[in-house]
């Protein structure tokens, strides 16, 4: 890709990040300055939301740009949590974007003490299996702790989404749109799970899950 095409792609992704951030904020998936987004450019540099930035008020020309090694290249200073985004990109080159939110239902779920750390949500809809697969739990660490990046990187080879205990979800995708769609499906699944608490649930069988994994995994 030549320089003109790289520049055009970057400008389009900057605008896309602004629009998707505004949409997430307007619909209550993000509040205040919480949460962060990132997307990998064609030259393997990373475009990310700046530190303390509200997803509802992002500006295309002030978004942070960093190298895969963490060097701040341009724009406002990136969030401290960009380090775990970078660790995930380095661990899995297939990731094209990372979305981290403090959305209500997934964050509420992350605070429960009765979670299966290998897969927080037992599958009961096909869409959870198709878009997320499994949702492992990362133990609680203070925001910005290096252990978060370490644990997320270790899980990135085999998982598209992870839940940070007492913190919130981290979801990936092949593109920023794909990652946001995966995040929205996961948040809706958590909402349904909490709605169905203490109700008899028809969970998917192992055969049904395996069929979905074969088709969409």
* Amino-to-carboxy terminus distance: 30 Å
Biggest sheet statistics: 8 strands, mixed
| Computed CA radius of gyration, to the nearest angstrom | 17 Å
| Beta-strand content bin | 5-15%
Tally of distinct domains:
1
Overall mean pLDDT? 96
CATH class: Alpha Beta
Number of strands: 8
* Widest β-sheet, arrangement of strands: 4-3-2-1-5-8-7-6
Any idea what the shape is? globular
Find the structural class using helix and strand composition. alpha+beta
In N-to-C order, the SSE pattern is: HEEEEHEHHEHEEHH
CATH fold label: L-fuculose-1-phosphate Aldolase
CATH superfamily: Class II aldolase/adducin N-terminal domain
CATH architecture: 3-Layer(aba) Sandwich
- Assign a percent range to the helix content: 40-55%
What is the number of helical segments per DSSP (H or I, 4+ residues)?
7
Unreliable spans: none
Describe this structure in words.
Its cofactor is Zn(2+). The chain is an alpha+beta fold and 217 residues long. It has one domain (3-216): Class II aldolase/adducin N-terminal domain (L-fuculose-1-phosphate Aldolase, 3-Layer(aba) Sandwich). It is 41% helix and 14% strand. The chain is built from 7 helices and 8 strands. It has helices at 3-26, 82-91, 104-110, 126-131, 146-155, 176-195, 206-216; strands at residues 36-40, 46-48, 64-66, 72-74, 97-100, 137-138, 161-164, 168-173. The protein has an 8-stranded mixed sheet with strand order 4-3-2-1-5-8-7-6, sandwiched between helices. The mean pLDDT is 96.
